[in-house]
Amino acid sequence: MMDKVSALPPVSEMMRACGLEPKKQFGQNFLFDLNLTGRIARSVPDIENIPVVEVGPGPAGLTRAILLAGAKKLVAIEKDKTTEPILSAVTDASDGRLSVIYDDALRVNFSELGFSEYSVCANLPYNVGTELLIGWLQKIAKGEQIKSLTLMFQKEVAQRITARPGDEHYGRLAVLTSLIADSKILFDVPNTAFVPRPKVQSAVVQIIPNAHKISQISDLEKIEKITAKLFGQRRKMIRAIMPNVCWSDFGLQGTERAENLSPETFAHLAKNLL
């Protein structure tokens, strides 16, 4: 079963054969390094038993690696239909394990993919990565059974996801993620690994939902609103942003800035103020 995928021509060769090039409007940066794609795919927990969803497979470098790592079922969501010749060839080689949806991942209803649970593994397009992540976090908070997220981002975004209060990268993404999951940076990826080469470095982040944390959160969307409000003016004291709040009711002086507040404090504020 694995041999058909292994026997496919190199990704770069298949791209040349169908005249495929990365498209700037889709935020595409293709990853060809087999060692890196294999390392990402092997990082997905329980990949042989839990269906995997990939966003933005492009010419299927990571897609192949996920199949070779033993995924029993993989759904790839791709907006760019010019990749179809390559993705069709990989689908044919997958013996029914790969299916491709040609659509915008921001519009796809993941709960209708037919899985009771799934993991996500993706080299996310730079221009929609953060928006997709927040959508997945909201789904997790509402009980959708996403077992893990193994995602490549620009390194600065990865640092913003995994930051702690007081860190220079601490902000909205860190608050939302840490309230419902455990996250860490698995490894960095140099810009030389991509075609075309981006100006920034990248990193692979893994996010594992935490059932106990999720049970403590009533409304992640409210928390997102208050983080957007307070971090939107992160250099101001919180009393200057929301002057009508009696901050002492929350054990605060009002002279704090958003970066000083713990995720739990944001959750408490959202529950009582919104």
Q: Specify the overall morphology.
A: elongated
Question: For the terminal residues, how far apart are their CA atoms?
Answer: 53 Å
Helix content, binned percent: 25-40%
With strands numbered from the N-terminus, the spatial order across the biggest sheet is 4-3-2-5-6-9-7
In total, how many beta strands? 9
β-strand percent reads 15-25%
Number of helices: 12
Largest sheet: 7 strands, mixed
Structural class: alpha/beta
Mean pLDDT, to the nearest integer, reads 91
Identify low-pLDDT runs: none
Order of helices and strands: HHEHEHEHEEHEHHEEEHHHH
Radius of gyration: 20 Å
Description:
By secondary structure, this protein is α/β, with parallel strands linked by helices. Helix content is 37%, strand content 18%. It has twelve helices and nine strands. The strands form two sheets. Strands 4-3-2-5-6-9-7 form a seven-stranded mixed sheet, sandwiched between helices. Strand 2 (52-55), helix 4 and strand 3 form a beta-alpha-beta unit. The mean pLDDT is 91.
Task: Please supply descriptive tags for the structure shown above.
single chain; about 270 residues; alpha/beta; seven-stranded mixed beta sheet; two-stranded antiparallel ribbon; 12 helices
In terms of topology, how is this protein built?
Layout: H1 2-6, H2 11-17, E1 30-31, H3 34-42, E2 52-55, H4 61-68, E3 74-78, H5 84-93, E4 98-102, E5 118-123, H6 129-141, E6 146-154, H7 155-162, H8 172-180, E7 181-189, E8 194-195, E9 202-209, H9 211-215, H10 220-231, H11 238-241, H12 263-273
